[in-house]
Structure formats: C-alpha cells, structure tokens
Design brief:
- Helix content is about 35%, strand content about 25%.
- The protein has about 325 residues and is an alpha/beta fold.
- It folds into 2 domains: about 190 residues, Histidine kinase-like ATPase, C-terminal domain (Heat Shock Protein 90, 2-Layer Sandwich), CATH 3.30.565; about 120 residues, Rossmann fold (3-Layer(aba) Sandwich), CATH 3.40.50.2300.
- The chain has a 5-stranded mixed sheet with strand order 3-5-6-8-7, covered by helices on one side. A 5-stranded parallel sheet has the order 11-10-12-13-14, with helices on both faces. A two-stranded antiparallel ribbon has the order 1-9.
- Helix 9 links the parallel strand 13 and strand 14.
- Helix 2 packs across helix 3, helix 3 packs antiparallel against helix 5 and helix 7 runs parallel beside helix 8.
- The longest helix has 19 residues.
Length: about 325
C-alpha cells in the first residue's frame, strides 16, 4: 500500500535491457529455489530504452520472483525473453485492461511460468493497491509494478488460467531517433517499490554471496562498501564512519568473525545499525549477541524480497526514533 501511494522522481538513463535482465537473472538463479529453473532468450538485437534503471530492475525482479513462487515446491520453469515489437495502428494490441497499446516500437519482456495460474477474479484484482488476499505466487507489489510501467510510457499484458501457468508481457517504448528530447516519459512515478538510500558496509567472506548481496543492495538504492572479514570491515568503518549508516555482516569469517566485529563496532558507535546474516540459525546468534542489540537478522540463504523487508524495517525504525 505504501509503495502504491509513494511518488519518486525518475532518474532517466539509456538502458540495455539485455544486460539488465541477464544480470538480474544471474543473481536470482543463485538465490531462488532450484526447483524453479529460469531459462532466458535474450536477443542481441534489442534496442535501447530510456528510463529509471533501479525501478525497471524492480519490475524485472518482482515478475521473476512471482513466477518462481507460483511454481511452489514442484519442478517447474520460468521463461524470460526479450523481443523487439512494432505496434501498428489498427492492429489488435491491447493491455491487460483491454485498452489499446499506442502505436510505436517497443522492447517486450515476456515472463512465463508453468505454475499455479490465476482465475479471472484474481487476474482482475491483483493490481488493486488494497487487494490483500494471499495466494500462491502473486500479489508481490503488482500495483507498484504496474505504476512503474505506466510511468515509463509502457503497457502490460497478462494471461493466466488455473493450473496452466501465467504470462506477463511488459512493453517499454524504444528511444525514438532524432528525438527533440521529449521521450514521453512521465516526470514522476505514481507508484514504486521501496527504495533505500545511504551507504551500507557489507561484510562477507564468500565471494559469490558477497557479489550477489552487493547486487541486491545496489538495486535497492544503497551505496555499498565491501569487506571480506571483520578486520578489514573494522578498518573500512573507521575510515568511513560518517558515511556508513548500516552494516550487514556475516558471522562465520576468518581473521575476525562477525561476533567480534559486532562488539568492536558497537564500542565505536552504540547506535550503529547492524544487520546480522548467518546460516547458523537465529536462536544461536541471538543468544550470543542479544536480539535487542541487533538492528535486524536474516538467515542464509535469503532472497531479494527477504533482504528488502529487513532493510525496510531497519530504515523505517530509524526514521521513527
């Protein structure tokens, strides 16, 4: 509801959707359940579009995560493709609501799953900001997704049947040649997923996990400083304490583990917000540190939505205090 009601200024840049989608798919393959196989068909002949890279990244990520969740615990697949489509006046191109898609050239992203699917009632209601009924694999910020697409001058198509999967098609207008600078994009988005700000110190000794976590954090709007162990993290914090607003740290690390780092950082700044990431279980970590001392805790492996919710809670709590 907050995402739907929020407004954010678009930071417009030229975007290569092939690179954007490929990068997000690579990140999600390492975090989503392995029973949902993500396959891509990304043509190299896709033209550039213009828009807000962070917001469009949220659209791509949310649609793929929803598709994965729709599959549930069964074996299934999510197909993600990009195509160049020209909508011609008089041809039948309609959005999910039956409205004509304006003529022009578009980059079309297709996200298809073979999961649970949706009935007609659900298809009509998933974009409502106050629709709260929970059902498998749908409802994750879809009102915000639609708002972002509309703010970029795009359109959305949806087809789904119970037990036969779901397909979302996102149409994003191609940059017009010889444009005078007016691309037809709205100056503000009527709805957008939560985006944070500030600098986070990410402490993680496993390269792959650290790279994925950095991608997520940057997608959520944060600047990221990286450290591979507690000792390096402490040195980075001492040099950049004025900029660092949150620390996200693993606990099991060489040289200096997360427990020692936690106490040393708290001795430097007792108000520093530290989020603990661990594969050892919340109970063990909380018993050694104390739940009251942590700003948040997230168990490995975690997906982008789980990380975003923890960050949002930490940031919102800080603003209220």
């Amino acid at each position: 509801m907050l995402a739907y009601a929020g407004k954010a200024q678009l930071t417009k840049t030229k975007i290569n959707m092939v690179e954007k989608v490929d990068k997000i798919v690579g990140m999600l393959k390492a975090t989503l359940p392995r029973n949902a196989v993500i396959k891509t068909d990304l043509s190299a002949e896709i033209p550039l579009i213009e828009g807000d890279a962070s917001q469009l990244g949220q659209v791509v990520m949310n649609l793929i995560i929803n598709a994965s969740e729709a599959i549930g615990t069964e074996q299934g697949k999510v197909d993600v493709s990009l195509a160049r489509i020209k909508v011609i006046a008089g041809k039948e191109y309609e959005d999910y609501h039956g409205k004509p898609i304006p003529p022009g050239e578009y980059v079309c992203m297709d996200v298809t799953d073979n999961g649970c699917g949706m009935d007609d009632t659900t298809k009509w209601r998933i974009f409502e900001p106050f629709y709260t009924t929970k059902f498998t694999g749908r409802g994750l910020g879809m009102s915000a997704v639609l708002g972002i697409i509309k703010s970029h001058g795009g359109a959305l198509q949806l087809s789904s049947q119970p037990g036969q999967g779901t397909t979302f098609k996102v149409y994003l207008p191609v940059i017009r040649k010889n444009s005078t600078g007016d691309t037809g994009l709205a100056v503000s988005a009527p709805s957008t997923p939560w985006i944070g700000s500030g600098t986070i110190l990410l402490v993680e000794d496993e390269d792959q996990i650290r790279d994925i976590a950095k991608e997520m954090l940057e997608m959520f709007g944060f600047t990221v400083l990286e450290a591979v162990n507690g000792k390096e993290a402490l040195e980075i914090y001492q040099k950049n304490a004025a900029e660092i607003t949150i620390v996200l740290t693993d606990m099991g690390m060489p040289v200096m583990d997360g427990y020692e780092l936690f106490h040393k950082l708290k001795s430097l700044d007792s108000e520093l917000r530290i989020i603990v990431s661990s594969g050892y279980g919340d109970v063990e970590v909380s018993s050694r540190i104390g739940s009251d001392n942590m700003a948040g805790i997230i168990s490995k492996p975690y997906n982008p939505n789980q990380l975003r919710e923890v960050l949002k809670s930490v940031v919102n709590t800080s603003h209220q205090s």
